[in-house]
Amino acid sequence: MHLKSINNITKSKLNSAIELVQWPVDPSIDKQKIDEQVFAIQTTRIAPHQGISQLASPYQYFNLGLHVGDCAEKVQKNRQFLQSILPNNARVQWFDQVHGNHVAVVDELSPQKITADAAVTSSKDICLAIMTADCLPILLASKYGNEIAAIHGGWRPLAANIIDNTLEKMQTPAVDLYTWLGPCISQKYFEVGQEVKTKFIEQDKCFASAFIASVDGKYLADLHQIARLQLAHLGVKQISTLPDCTYSATEKYYSYRKNAVTGRMASLICLV
């Protein structure tokens, strides 16, 4: 567990505030080797240490987004804490996520945010960070432990084939990729218009299985199912999930659709 002996966080706080990504179990692969070569975590809104945001704040406690109206000083403290638990020499690369389908290949750490909704790297000192508050975070790792990627899987990026674009930027064949789908708004609460369903159906009729008719011509969309179908079509077979619903579990996660004014979690991945 590459958390610098977890520093001064207790194990119980780690398990609630920061979750370790669990990769798929494949009997043909030495999973321990992958865990040793790839560090990946998912943050929550739970405080990993004291003195973060005020109790009454909509950003309590572990907001990592500087763009949502929270106190910048508090966000920077949260980011500094996050930095402190990363593997040695790793530094976080943040992104300006615009709900598009651009994929950045990051060879060098940029002090400025990179405008992209997905990123790929083979550098050991770059930690890719995708922020979400209902959208689907997607992390990918080569089974050889030499290449990683992170994707902001909102419905717009997914409809614009951001997963396909990401795999095209990677050197690792799809069959050799491990993929993790993180917490997002569940189908029960993610109501969209007919136009959203149409965008996916126009790509492939199989996406109809990811939509359930609601009321007034609306549909309930399943982001996990959409991503799984796209990954399978591209040849990715090893997929694990953390299927928590951000909308229904706002004591643990931020949800933009439920609260509008809220913070952001981060899904982070780096090579060790």
Characterise this structure.
This protein is an alpha/beta fold and 272 residues long. The protein has a single domain, classed as CNF1/YfiH-like putative cysteine hydrolases. It contains 8 helices and 16 strands. The chain has helices at residues 11-17, 31-37, 72-84, 155-159, 162-169, 194-201, 223-234, 256-259, and strands spanning 18-20, 38-43, 91-93, 95-96, 103-105, 114-115, 118-121, 126-132, 136-142, 148-153, 177-181, 191-192, 211-213, 219-221, 238-241, 265-271. Strand 9 and strand 10 (148-153) form a beta hairpin. It is globular, with a radius of gyration of 18 Å.
Features:
24% helix, 8 helices, 272 residues, six-stranded mixed sheet, CNF1/YfiH-like putative cysteine hydrolases, 16 strands
Task: Describe this structure in a few short sentences.
By secondary structure, the protein is of the alpha/beta class. The chain has helices spanning 11-17, 31-37, 72-84, 155-159, 162-169, 194-201, 223-234, 256-259; strands at 18-20, 38-43, 91-93, 95-96, 103-105, 114-115, 118-121, 126-132, 136-142, 148-153, 177-181, 191-192, 211-213, 219-221, 238-241, 265-271.
